[in-house]
Amino acid sequence: MVDSLKRPQEDSLKKADFEEIRPGIKAPASDTILTPRFYTTDFEEMAQMDISINEDELRAILEEFRTDYNRHHFVRDEQFEQSWESIDGETRRLFVEFLERSCTAEFSGFLLYKELGRRLKGKNPVLAECFNLMSRDEARHAGFLNKAMSDFDLQLDLGFLTKSKDYTFFKPKFIFYATYLSEKIGYWRYITIFRHLESHPENCIYPIFRFFENWCQDENRHGDFFSAIMKSQPSILNDWKAKLWCRFFLLSVFATMYLNDLQRKDFYGSIGLDARDYDIHVIRKTNDSSGRVFPVILDVDNPEFVDRLDIAAAANSRIVEIGKSSQPKAVKVLRQVPHIANIGWQMLRLYLMKPIDMAPMREVIH
Ligand SMILES: [Fe+2]
Ligand SMILES: [Fe+2]
Fold this sequence. Notes:
Blueprint: H1 2-5, E1 7-8, H2 10-15, E2 19-22, E3 25-26, E4 38-40, H3 43-47, H4 55-67, H5 89-120, H6 125-150, E5 155-156, H7 158-164, E6 167-169, H8 172-199, H9 212-232, H10 240-263, H11 265-270, H12 275-290, E7 296-297, H13 303-324, H14 329-352, E8 356-357, H15 359-365
Parallel strand pairs: 3-5, 4-6
Antiparallel strand pairs: 1-2, 2-3, 7-8
Helix pairs in contact: 4-6, 4-9, 5-6, 6-9, 8-9, 8-10, 8-12, 10-12, 10-13, 13-14
């Protein structure tokens, strides 16, 4: 459906080579295994959840959400009021792509939380209000990013995106693992960029990054909310299946980011960051954060971990290169198969690496 609507515009080709569905409205990037997804879940199961054993913490988080620390934060100031033609060529393309991916990920959170807020209303009031207030935050984040895209003469039609994207169904416990991680990794991504540009202001070529410090606190609070929900459902954290799933989600989230970012290292380069160092830092920090709630975390400091990610990232680059060639589709797929198999193999080996069990460490802390 999206394909039939794609209409290259001469104007956009000149500027950044993007396809538009209407003038100034960018066609959403086509879905691959590495693009941000939209989620749906079993709303009834979530509504029936008994949160009583951790209700105090959840109510405390709800109070924080109600306080709305960032009510006045997302206001475009005079720093945006200039022409951004100076960001051109490949940097411009990478910038728009970064904004689009971030906007889509934020908007995906908005849609899921909004729907959860609606469906849980009257059935599980504490959770319903938390979800509503988180959807408020994500709407601001997505809106701010989409407005930033308009500085580059493009925007996303979020209504169109809502209808055209596929939704992935996850049972509630998988939604919790996945959203907890995406909120925490989002926090570490934003704060790491912010801190880097704070110490290297000459690399801050566009003002949106200055907003990341308060912005990422929203993501941190969202992550804490999911952590509190998981603690209210000990069964999803304390059996052998939980350990296997936590490993799976940690690895999926880390590998997806790594493969995506290494493919776009020029974007990170344009703001003075080394994509690989940046990702390794974000992975370490997110892994450590996860250790406060997950029963296991990954042994990311073992050199084998990054080595295998590097092999997978190189295979991914080959897949992308082959995809860009002008050969017939069947030939391209055949040439891609060994690289896809290689990534699969690396992921399997990474998954089977001995994880770090957090239970004994928590006992020491207690
Ligand atoms: Fe967000
Ligand atoms: Fe968030």
